[in-house]
Structure formats: C-alpha cells, structure tokens
Design goal:
heterodimer; A: 95 residues; alpha+beta; Ubiquitin-like (UB roll); 5-stranded mixed β-sheet; B: 446 residues; alpha/beta; Rossmann fold
Chain lengths: 95, 446
C-alpha cells in the first residue's frame, strides 16, 4: 500500500486538481523526489534551492511535524499519511 | 403591523445614523473609503488581487496587504483622527476594509495608563501599561483582529467563520460572529482554561475540542479552510486579520501625544503582534504623524514555550518548533507562524527577547494586580515578569520610557493563580471574631 499525500490548494495546479495523491518512498526526501517524477515542477515549489523544505511549508507525517522526527530523512512506510500545509504567517514587508 | 414595521425601520435607521455620526464623524464626505491596492508576497514580491488568499501560490510566502499610502496621506491627518470616535476604527484608512466597519464598531482605544506604582517597584522612571484586558467586547486584543477579519469576511460574502484558538481569539470570534449574524466554528485544544471555554460556548457557537496542542489545532484548521471554504480568520483571512493588531500600536503613539516610547515589551505566541506594532510605527513615520521611530521592541515568552526567544538568544532566524509545556496557554504555540518575522523585528529595532518560568509569570500577574489594580491573564504575567528581567539585565535602561503590553484579562485564567493566593478566613457574623482577626494582624505587623 503506497503513501497518501494531501495536497494544499496552491499545489493542485500541478496535480491536475487532485487534493490527494499516492506515492512511494522510503523517507520524506525520497517521497518528494517521487512526487516530482509524477508531477513535474512540484519539488521546486516545496523545496528551496538547497533542497530543504521551504521555510513557510509544514510537513506532517501521520499528523506529526517531521521537524520533531528526522526532517527529510524521516522514514516512511506503506499506509502512512503525509500532509503538506502552508505555514500561516502574516509578514511585515518594508513600507 | 405595516406601520410598526416602517416605524421600526425608521427607528433603527435613526439609531444607526446617530451611532455612525458619533463613531465616524470624519466619514461624511470622504471621497474614498478603501486604500488597499491588493496583496503582496512578503518573500518573492508577487502581486495578488484583494481576495481571500493567504499564501503565495509560488513560494508559499505570506501575503501582506499592500496600501496606497499616497492616497491615505491625502485624506488622513492627526486632526481627522482626533475628530473621530474613540475606537480602533479612527484609523480605518490604515485597515484593509473597503467601507465602514460592519463588525466590532466599538472595539479598541483602550486605556494607556501611567503606571507609577509599578515603576517604583521596578525602579524605572517612565512606565506605561497599554491595557487591552478591558477591550470590548471580550477583554483581549483579539477583539481588534476579529473586528477587522469579520468585516472583511462580510465584504467577501462569507456566511461561516471560524478560528484556531488558544482561547481569546475563540471568545472574540464567537461574540462578534453573533453581532455580525454569521455562523461560527471555534476549534481549540481540549485542555484550555474553563474561563476561555465558557467564554466561547456562551455565545452559542460551535465549539470543537481537539486532542492535542494549538499547533495540532492550527494544522487541522488549515485543512478545514481548504476543504470547507469557510473564513477561518487566522488562516485564509490572515493577511487582513493581522492588520487589526496595528491599531494597538497606533493607539500607544497617539495616547503618548503622537510620539513613540523607547521600549515596548510584547507577549509572543504566533509572533504576529510584535511585527504589526513595528509596522504601525513605520506607517506613522511614513504619514508624518511622528518624527522618529527609535522604539526597541522586546519579545516575551514563557520558558515552556519559547521557540522565538530561543532563536533570538542563539542569534538565528531559524525557528525550531517545540512542544509547549506552560500554564500560559494563551501564548503556548510551539510552531509560531510569524516566528521568523518576529525575530527580524526584534533584531531590526534593537530589542531583545526573554522568557520566564511559570512561577515567575504568576508573580508577574500578582505584581501588576497589587501595584496597578489590573488583573491580567497568564500572557500578561509573562510580559510583566519579562519586563522586570530585561530591566534587571540592563537591556532596558531605567531612565527610558517603557510600555508593557497587557493583552488579556485575568478573569479568564483564574486557574493560574487559584492556589497561589491567601486563603480567606471564614468567621461568624460576630464583631468579636473580626476583632480577633484584627488583633492577630496587628500583632503580625508589630
């Protein structure tokens, strides 16, 4: 059984509107690479130029923030659920 | 019956007109009410229309309201502001609404108190309390953001609103949704203080308790907003909602006689308020309402939930999330949405950040109550205790002006002090028994 990934609205243009997709992978990094193989362009949106998850994205594995586990190296297994959730910041740009 | 209906309509129209004349005398003849150009990504600068959006669809950066400051400068002056009713809406050109506020018209303009008694205890010369514990209608600064967000929600045509809350926000959304005629859903951690829960349920809203902490609730609310299409005020209306916090800063400056204090100490949960106070100061400088902007903004957290103060002390802008463990539940956010920006704000303004343990925050609550007669909640206790610490550390010089931000009311978090107060003696209605107590007290004094 593959891993289910919940896709937030801003990324659904890349998943043809799907709010949930399935993918395989042994850890989060692997999973993002496999998402990219299926939905070209999605990795650039999730990760910054250093390959790290962007500052304003929260990644949850079975409802736990991966930063409390192993970040990109957090192992995944069949049946897991991933949620990609935009962080909800307000910002304060220079006026 | 028809006559009655017409009569009622006339009466209510009269009341509305009278209220608006009282609240917004400056509105008559205004050529333009809205000054929002659109939304702008804080990170990559991409522009978006004025819609219920909150993240950049490309880089996930937060979206910020983009104002026409040149237009505002033409119509908004200190005289215009001073001529208006004493509510947060006296600054409405600097808020992201297109017309008159339709929700929370009486919110804000809370007292700024010269706190001489507390100043004496802390050994400082000039100290003020900005007291949002008496904000209307639900006794916290969250009334400000909610009146802004719900006015915007109505402009967008939403019928259902909601929030992820540590308590105060839920109180404010539930109460103001009733006033606005909107349905509301309040999502909260299951273990909040009783005062916060009752202070939400009483309004007949839909309360959902979640097993987990605020960060779990916040994640769930992001998914709810995505799926149900409701206006979750601190999720998909966040760019508009957060702007309401600026009025806290505007009021401090106006109440000080159109000038800034040297220091403002601000409680930090998600970290938004401190960034919005910084923005309020920048905007007043831009509009020429104040001359200088040399205020140092200091952040306060509870040690059991201190990801932002930790980052400041480690000189990094990388926020490492924590699992909160503190009685200061209203600021117990382990993954602060605006943590990155609040670290920036503290750094840019030359401020600092500190945290205090639960015993210290309780002492902070008692100190404020016993010097200034203000009963604040746990977050206020944190802010008072951190102010004391920063003064003792020399981060705040004793001869410079200080404002302590009190953002919530102690009647909502009585559990925090319940077992920390003297137990009153119980006597019969007998003067002899009262005399005995007085003799005991006199003996103790001698």
């Amino acid at each position: 059984m593959p891993i289910t990934v919940r896709i937030p609205t801003p990324l659904r243009t890349l998943t043809k509107g799907a709010d949930e997709v399935t993918v395989e992978g042994e850890n989060i990094k692997d999973l993002i690479d496999n998402l990219e193989a299926n939905y070209k362009g999605i990795k650039e949106r999730i990760c910054d130029s250093d390959g790290q998850i962007r500052r304003f994205i929260n990644f949850y594995l079975n409802d736990e923030d991966i930063r409390f586990m192993g970040d990109l190296n957090t192992p995944t297994k069949d049946g897991d659920h991933i949620s990609i959730v935009p962080a909800i910041a307000g910002g304060n740009y220079n006026i | 019956m028809g006559k009655d209906k017409i009569g009622t309509q006339k009466a209510s129209s009269y009341l509305i007109l009278r209220k608006e004349a009282f609240l917004f005398p400056g509105s008559v003849g205004d050529e333009k009410m809205g000054f929002v150009k659109g939304l702008k990504c804080r990170e990559c600068g991409r522009l978006y229309p004025k819609e219920p959006l909150h993240v950049c669809s490309f880089c996930f950066g937060p979206l910020e309201v983009d104002y026409d400051y040149d237009g505002i400068k033409k119509v908004l002056t200190k005289t215009v502001i001073e001529s208006r009713g004493k509510t947060m809406w006296r600054y409405r050109e600097l808020l992201p609404v297109d017309g008159e506020p339709t929700v929370g018209a009486l919110v804000g303009f809370t007292p700024l108190i010269k706190a001489n008694n507390l100043a004496k205890v802390l050994g400082v010369e000039e100290l003020y309390i900005k007291n949002d514990s008496v904000n209307y209608p639900t006794f916290s600064f969250k009334d400000r953001v909610v009146s802004t967000a719900l006015t915007k929600a109505k402009e967008f045509g939403y019928r259902t609103v909601g929030c992820a809350t540590t308590g105060n926000l839920g109180n404010a959304v539930a109460a103001q949704a009733v006033q606005a005629g909107l349905e509301s859903y309040i999502i909260m951690p299951a273990d909040l203080e009783q005062g916060k829960i009752i202070g939400t349920l009483i309004y007949g809203t839909n309360v959902i308790k979640v097993k987990g902490n605020y960060d779990n609730v916040n994640k769930l609310c992001s998914e709810i907003a995505d799926k149900y299409g409701w206006a979750i005020v601190n999720v998909n209306l966040r760019p508009y909602y957060g702007e309401g916090s600026k009025t806290y800063g505007y009021e401090i400056m106006e109440q000080l006689g159109w000038k800034v204090p040297k220091h403002i100490v601000v409680p930090m949960a998600g970290g938004s308020l401190i960034t919005k106070i910084e923005k309020s100061i920048k905007e007043f400088v831009k509009l020429g309402f104040i001359d200088t902007a040399d205020t140092k903004l200091h952040g306060a957290q509870a040690s059991g939930s201190a990801p932002i103060t930790t980052a400041v002390k480690l000189d990094t802008d990388v926020i490492k999330p924590v699992k909160p463990k503190t009685i200061a539940q209203s600021i117990a956010i382990g993954n602060p949405a605006d943590g990155f920006y609040s670290v920036k704000t503290i750094g840019i303004t030359g401020g600092w950040a500190e945290d205090v343990v639960d015993d210290e925050l309780v002492e902070g609550i008692k100190l404020l109550a016993r010097t200034e007669g203000i009963f604040t909640e746990t977050a206020g206790g944190v802010t008072v205790a951190v102010t004391k610490k920063l003064i003792e550390q020399g981060k705040i010089p004793r001869d410079e002006s200080i404002v302590i931000s009190i953002t919530g009311n102690g009647l909502k978090t009585q559990e925090a002090v319940l077992n920390r107060l003297e137990i009153p003696k119980i006597i019969n209605p007998s003067l002899a028994e009262f005399d005995a107590i007085m003799e005991e007290r006199m003996a103790a004094i001698q």
